[in-house]
Structure formats: C-alpha cells, structure tokens
Description:
By secondary structure, the chain is of the alpha/beta class. Helix content is 18%, strand content 33%. It has five helices and 15 strands. The strands form three sheets. Strands 1, 2, 3, 4, 5, 9 and 15 form a seven-stranded mixed beta sheet that branches. Strands 12-11-10-13-14 form a five-stranded mixed beta sheet, sandwiched between helices. The chain has a three-stranded antiparallel beta sheet with strand order 6-8-7, with no helix packed on it. It is globular and about 50 Å long.
Amino acid sequence: xxxxxxxxxTLGVNNIKLSAIFEADNFVYSTFDQDNNMLSFNRGLPYTExxxxxxxINPVTTKVAVxxxxxxxxxxxxxxxxxxxxxxxxxxxxxxxxxxxxxxTPKGVSIKHFSTLLNHEFxxxxxxxxxxxxxxxxxxxxxxxxxxxMLYNCYKMDGEGDLLYYHSLISQALDLNVEFNTLRxxxxxxxxxxxxxxxxxxxNHIEFVNSPDVNIITTREDLKPYHFYDHIINLKCGx
Length: 239
C-alpha cells in the first residue's frame, strides 16, 4: 500500500484551503492553494491537534468530511432520531437526509458526511454509478442510477474475502444488471492490487477516477489525484 503522506512546503503560500477528514479515532488533512494545486497530505493526527493545525496553517477555507460508520439515511425528515449530538445533511435534489455523529465538533467550519459529498458530486450524472472508495481499513460503496442514490455504506476490511462478500451482497440485493459493468475506484488502491484483481472479473471496465483540474505538487510520481478523491470532492462539494 502506497504511503500517501507528502509536504511540498507551504511557507509563503497565501490563501491556503484545508480539507480535513474525520475518521473514528483521528483525522487526516490536506492543503491546496487557490489554483487547486494540492500541497500536502498528513494523516493519523489526534483530534486534540485540530485547533493547532488550523492556527498554524491559518487557511482561508476549512471543510470537514466525516467518514465514521455512525450514520443513517432517512427518506422522511421527521423519522430522524433527535437524541444525541447528530449532524443532518440533505442529499442534493432528493428527499433523503443523512444523520450522523462526528467524533469531534469543530467550530466555525463546514462539515458534511462523506455520502453527502459523493451524492453532490454525482447527482447530475444519470448514468449507472458503482463506486468504491478505499481507506486504510474501510471501504465505501456508493451506488446510484438515474441521478438517484440507491445505496451507500461503509464496511470494515477484516479479511481478504470481505470486499467480494459485500460487493456480491450489494449486487444481488439491488439486482444490478449489465448497466453497472463500469466500476469506479478511488482512495488507497492501486492498479492490479489484490482488491483490483478480486473485482475485475465482475466488471467489464474499471476506471480510476480522474480530477484533471487538480495538480499534486510533489516530485513523487506514484501519487495520483484518485488517491485523494475524498479531499478533492470535500473542497469542491462541501458547502
């Protein structure tokens, strides 16, 4: 698995934008300049360091995406449980709400659930979409057709068979047909990796998502925009 951390030195760079991803036990963050050049990626920081990061970088924009599995999707806003500290997002153009907990509550920044960001990225696309985003020990499956969300869920990768199990379970439960033969991949996955090899027999075409308007400022040739797709859509779609 590729090590994604890098830092191109942001000293002297003005108008920095910061994307933070809140995971179960820590957060990761990346920085971009005003021209959407990606300047750095840092991972595995405790939430006690969040304010320090903000004060050190002093970004002009900060957006947070929550990726923890403590969420629910509801077709009726009145059915959303109000007990506890929940955030609520509405899917773009659909009467579907996402209620979720955040492991940390930042002050004065935009916060959205990862499923909401994926939905906003795809809502104008009426093609069948089967998308899997990989984290270090989780993978997120998003399925959409005719511009409407069919399913989003995230799963823990405990063993080699977990990916295929949930992929098959979802394909059968949603009765996905040949229209879903294209599989989109992003995150911590490589061409011809174990996960790629497992999935390839079930799809005629596999594509790694591309973000042509984003440049990664580093001499490392192994880092690609699809590795940081969650941060890219966080800054692009997080409201």
